[in-house]
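Q: Protein A?
A:
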Amino acid sequence: MKNIVSFKYNFVLLILIVTTLLYFNSLSNNFNIDDHLYYNEELANKDISEAVKIIFTEPSFTQVDGLKHEYRPVSKLLFYLEVKIFGINPFVSHTISLLFFQSFLLLLWYFIKRVVQFKESFLAEVSILLLAVHPLSTEIVCSSKAREELYVVLFGLMAIICLYKYLKTKKTSNLISVFVCFILAILSKKTGILLLVILPLLFYMWSEEFKIKKGSIFSGLLFFVAYFTIYVHDQLESGDRILLFIENPLVDQNVTLIERVITGFHIVGKYITTILYPVHLSSYYGYPLFDVIKNVSVHFFIGLLFFIVGIPVGIYLFLKRNIYGFFLLSSLIILFAFSNIPELLPGVFADRFGFIILLFIVPLFVKLIVVIVSGTQKSIQLKYYLLVLPILFLSLLSYKRSLQWKDLETLFVADVLSYPNNHKLLLELGNFYFEKALAENDFGEKDKSLISGRKYYEKAVTIFPDNQMVKSNLEIISCKLGNEKKCNDFILKSNSNRDKEQYLMYLHDYFLNKKDTLKAIKYLEKILIINPDYQKGYETLNRLYFKSGQEQKGIETLSEFIARYPESPLGYAEMANYLLTQKDTLGALPYVEKAAIKKPYNPGVLSFLINYYQKKDNYEKANYYHLILSER
């Protein structure tokens, strides 16, 4: 008895140590892709009653363009409570995700040991360890938004536990808890609807004497609860997410049913091979990782074979109430749901969906290894190596993947390395560097980001040449990097004076930063020809003229500035500054006085005049300008 208790504590400790070592680095990560959808400061500032009303009566997500979509109120509420208590803090968020993941693994292990009771006592531990270290689990832990998947599986597991207790005790409270947890799972994320199939399967498995009437009543009640919940869900989800061709090529109306089925089985095969060899991962299921599959592929055959073998074997084992029959049928059902055959999804393949499939398919692979090696000599040693070595290998992959979740840049770069010809990924990374460059104040870092953005945009445009946004951004990058030939070609081809002016401004800014004053002047002169009302252009141009020794042109520009904008103090102040540098105080004085009385009043100019006239004992004028200064 002491050995059993000791083993339990040791395994709990092992899971906590392994998962902490794998994901400790993620605690210092920034928020990442789509995390902002749940971290709403405006909502957090509302009191709980008002916030709960908004959470349960409005769509959960609001995009930058104002589009509202999805309805996940339970997940939204839990994130709201986190922000309400701790504020918007990535360290806290990632810590909570890790704790939830550890709690789920331990709860699942405890339940399997108590209920499933594998013949081989170590199968539960090996299965949980594989779940803990598998790279498909990294997104669930490292992405704060993906925690919604944890909420779904946690509520799903609680529903399963309550169902088991109900079948053993016949207590109504346990049955009610099943339905409550079922509803909470669906309202965490719609994938919770998969319990509609999983729970009736378990009802049959665990019923000591299965009766069709009782099974039908339970399934009917479950269906009614699911229908009502989904009805409410769909009513409040208004403005549902639009499926885009760029995220899922199957939305194309020209895709035939046969092509959709072939692609669906290809997706199934892709999930299976990714579970077995999880090297090429992607952070977002909106990346179409492959096009519509029109001809059979290796992945297609793997997916089809899994169904051809799995369906009869699963049914046979299930009817004998063998737990592996349940795992196999559940895997088939979930794979089919995520295949895009029954319903089109926002993307064709998702790591986070792979995690849900993993829950049911891992025990099958572990059992398969045990069966294969059980007949060999030294089967215990071979069994040990065949189970321990994959755990070590997957641990290394998971640690590497968790490091890639550090921030958007490292994540996108890693994804592109896995899928170098993926248009959407290249576009995302190009956009990332482009937006980073626009926000960067350091010109050296700005140029680095522009060069990186150009690299990925150029790759994207070779794959999808008709993307006008990418072409436009490449034009901007060429101008911002001072490529005069390309930029001047763009200016010649453009029919928009606004675009021409903008391109010239990019060239001007580039050469101004490079301290090439003459070229900066050249492009600013062209800007003023296109837009003679560009007030700041005159102010900058005269300074550049004076800086480059072209004093006459500087004076002419200032004179034109003053003539065009007689109510602006800037032209007078600039002329006064120039004359003062020439030691012509009397010549500067009229310009200083004109600058002083133009709004907005300049305290520096007024102070200069007050001091000047006080020194000249002209107290009347000194007091006059002092009065203006005090009024300001």
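Q: Protein B?
A:
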Amino acid sequence: MKPGRNITLFCRSGKSRRTSRLAHVGVAALICLGAVDGAHAQSLSREPSAVASKEFAEASVDRYTPPDPRHLLNQEGAAKSQALSQYYLGLSREKAGDIEGALDSFEKVLEVSPGQLRLAGKAADLAGQFGDSERGRKILETSFKSNRHLPAAYLRLSEYLWTYHNNQRSNRERALELVEDAAEQFPDNPSIYDRLITLHLAKKDRAKARETLTKALERSNSDPEFWLGMARVAQRLYPLQQQPVPVLINKIYEKALALGQGNPEVENRVADYYSLTRQFELARDLYITIIKERPEELIVREKLARVYSLLGQEDKVLETLVELEQINPHRLETQQFLARIYYDKENWSNSIKHYLKAFKISRGQPLEYRIVSTMMLWENRADEAVDLLMRAQFHYPEDLQLQVEMGVALNASDRYDEAFDLFRETEELAEQSQPELLTDGFYFSYGASAERLKKFQEAEKLFQKSIDLVPQNNAERAAMPYNYLGYMWLEQDMKIEEAGQLIIMANDLRPDSGAYVDSLGWYYFKKGDHDSAVETLLRAIKLMESQDPPEEDAVVYDHLAQAYFMQGNIKEAVNYAQKASKLEPDNKEMAERLKEYLAAKTASTQSDLEQPQPVVAPDPKTDVAAKELPNAA
């Protein structure tokens, strides 16, 4: 059998399919064969007349069975079928860059369906964009003749003439005439007035544009949608950016509202306009009206909350959002809104709570995870921050910024070895792809993990990198590495003077930091200047107590206790050593010092008791017995 020969297939369906490709036949035959068992397959070798049952499949060669006439397309249907195939062919040609071929296909479609105005516009734009604007004009002129009953036909042809044939005055005039004709035929269509005003403005004829708007606003139209549309048209002449808001625009919206009373859609759009133009009281009142009419409008409640926020009515914001959450606790936008409100109020605990609820609804964004992990660290919930960032890294494994945040959280969780390894890995990756992540803050945290692991030389290099990377316009940021590096040297009894200079620079940058003042007091202690140490450490404690809420630090108390002890003030040494041990009862070094100071206090008290008391002669002026002695004279 020749490859191009026709064959007919028969399946259980009783329908026939004709094809001119042998390969297609083979596939179809195999499909039919799959429906029968081996015994039925044998019957296919019989003559066709012997296989009359519908239970069998038959393939015959050199035989044609015409289709049922009932299944044939009529002339109109065949034309539409051809048009549809040409439409998809045109799309594929356009995608492949064959613009000429695409236009040919689209024009064939329009010959069959001239009412396809959108396709005519698409074809005309293709022609215009690729240099054949005259062909595009002809396409739209032909389409216009079939669609004169549609306002869009006038607007489309006018726009094309103005865009692609603007170099000829006759075309510009025709573009304007088309829209003017449309305004006469469709006087209640805001889109036509919008186009007409735009053309007048393009011709620098502002007076004519205003005349057109005035004429449109004189219409006795009772449809609120018309007035909402005209309000947008009027903004061509009276932009909303003007302050105060143009009175005319307000009046148009008020008319739409009056005609649309009880229509939540109209009321909502007018309220949105009031909100957009910062007329918040009007927006608030209208949103409240909508909610009373339709309490299920959750989006309107969110808009009301935003308006309350812009009015500075924070209590009302929370009240509205809490009600909204009670109605639907699974609404993502509500949880995010509440989280941001509490964040702005510095209510970290509640902000975290609502962000976590939002993460259960949606996986969240990397920035949101970073914000929440930071708040958790502020709340001393470092282990939770680590768990949260593990989840974030699962969703966004490529995000190195999350990896940096994880290192910070691991430091806060005292998991310094994991933090150090993670910072080292992040540094290697960031050097190749995101060097902007290697900031002064990154190297400060990296250095802190190295210091905690007693890798002092490496920590020194990392802190120095942090200092070198501090932005020149934000010198205060250098205070952290200055203080940390200086304090590390003091603790190791090395480079005492250099350490002191770094700590002094940190204090110059941040004189209000109790931690930095404590480091300065400890520097004086290491130098042996115990009087200055006591004075400075007392100032550090005063700064910490002035915070809101007041802060207490066992290390600062311990430093002051040691300074008092070296000064010889055992009583105050014991007092502050007890405060330190109370805050950190598991700290063995502090416990040992307290034990030592208590022993010294006991010994001092015993020594005072054992000292002989001197005999004091009575004072005649104050001693009663002396007053009673007779005058020697």
